[in-house]
Amino acid sequence: MDRRLLVIVLTLVVNLIGFGIMIPLLPLYVRAFGASEQVIGMVIATFSLCQLIASPALGALSDRWGRRPVLVVSLVGTVVSFVMLALARSVPMLFAARLVDGLSGGNISTARAYIADITTEDERAKAYGLIGAAFGVGFVLGPALGGALGHVSYTAPIWAAAALTLVATVLAWAFLPETVHRSSANASPLIAGLREAFRRRTLRPLLIVDLAYWTATAVFQGTFALFAARRFGFDVPHVGYVLAVFGVLGVIVQVGLVGRVVAAIGERRTFVLGLLASVIGLGGAAVAPGVPLFLLMLTPLAIGSALCTPALAALISRQASVAEQGTIQGAASALESLGRTIGPVWGTAVMQRLGDSAAFGLGSVLLAATTALVVAGTSQAGSESPRAAA
């Protein structure tokens, strides 16, 4: 493996373990302050809303100043936000902590651009699969660690997340070589960056699909802990352990299967296959009457998510030159952030008003609609040729 790829993946793994610690914890931590489901969704969405504003500018800055400094600054912002979160004594402080993390949070889009710099188009889906695997490892070790430390206190996992992110910052600063020569490009603001991306006929439908997919995914992520707590009485440790198993399945698929599946059927068909599996899993989880069936339905959801994310990222990356990867990935990340902003607020509002199953059901319907868009040919112009997929 290319040493640069190894370092960026290792940096992401350590950072995402810290991120993963927060997944089972944050909704229940906010609830401990007396917040309603709607407010919980808004706290979760604040991070993504701020990313929506910041990601295009950070992506363009990484094209101008380099990937390494942007990644390091992003990680430092995450450390600061975790410290603020651990020291919070009120709901407004929770909002402030998520705001800081979101405004500085360009690590994933910058990492994708970095990988695009050091790989060929034919290698890219497999390399993005490693980012997915980093997410998987983060979602295995992070929730498990969060669940274990949750027995100590609500803030113990947060301090652990801050420490791990600090380690990731040191890794990026000390060992990650730069891949971009500084240029005179200007940092694109949100509207200008998105307008430039949407001008591209082949990229536009992929970005629409990207927004729909991440909105549906965020409905699940933003309501999972609340759903499991209300339906089955799960606490932070139980939520963490279930999500850890979910992450194990994702790692297996992304490390062992994504490259082979893409080579066999292409990136677009891989994305469709992942969407179909996710629809089945999330819809089944919504109506599962007991824990065994609920856990069983999470299996196709985990597999589907593991297939979708790298395939879609690779499809989008094909629409930009090497010099534009930061800008295009920043625009895509802004739409992902918009989806992650809409999803938790929408999902928690639906849960509060219509009951436990409604949020997961909503996510499943949106994934099904996304599948229909892709199958109907909405993203055909942005898909790869048979030769490129082979």
Shape estimate: globular
CATH topology: Growth Hormone, Chain: A
Helix content: over 70%
Tell me the radius of gyration.
19 Å
Summarize model confidence as the mean pLDDT: 79
The unreliable regions are: 182-187, 378-390
> What would you give as the CATH superfamily?
MFS general substrate transporter like domains
H and E string: HHHHHHHHHHHHHHHH
Number of helical segments with 4 or more residues? 16
Total beta strands: 0
Quote the beta fraction. under 5%
Number of domains: 1
Question: What key attributes describe this structure?
Answer:
Growth Hormone, Chain: A, mainly alpha
Describe the overall structure.
- This protein is an all-alpha fold.
- The chain has one domain: Up-down Bundle (Growth Hormone, Chain: A).
- It has 16 helices and no strands.
- It has helices at 3-31, 37-65, 67-87, 91-103, 107-118, 121-149, 155-175, 190-198, 204-232, 236-256, 258-265, 267-287, 291-317, 325-354, 356-375, 386-389.
- Helix 1 packs antiparallel against helix 10 (236-256), helix 9 (204-232) runs antiparallel to helix 13 (291-317) and helix 10 crosses helix 13 (291-317).
- It is globular and about 50 Å long.
